[in-house]
Amino acid sequence: MRALFVLLALVLTVAHGPHVPAQEPETDIPAVIEDQIAAFKRNDTDAAWAHASPQIQGLFGDAERFCDMVRKGYPMVWRPRSYRMGELEAVDGGFLQSVLFQDQTGRFFVAVYEMRLIDGAWRIDGVHVREAPGRGV
Asked: Does residue 35 lie within any of the structural domains?
């Protein structure tokens, strides 16, 4: 009887496996970006830093340097007046998520976030920003 119980437990474990949440890039990726923007808005450097990929973290070394770069180089991301998620595109082992930002002066920018799945979590592996005159949010 005990052998039957062990066999049944083994079959159930193999059939169902451990519970691992499904990766849903269409919802998970925008949530990561929105969480980082919210962290920037509340000056939570550690939370913002946590969404950066190991490659980005290696470039800057710590959360303070990283956030200082964003504050000075990407003010539309640091303190947007508004933003809206755009198109999500699968590319070479990751995704590109476009985001339309309006800065505090009313100018519009398109930011393309490079997203990579690292150890089961979506991380930001780079952002490319260009001005998008005449666009509305």
From this structure: yes
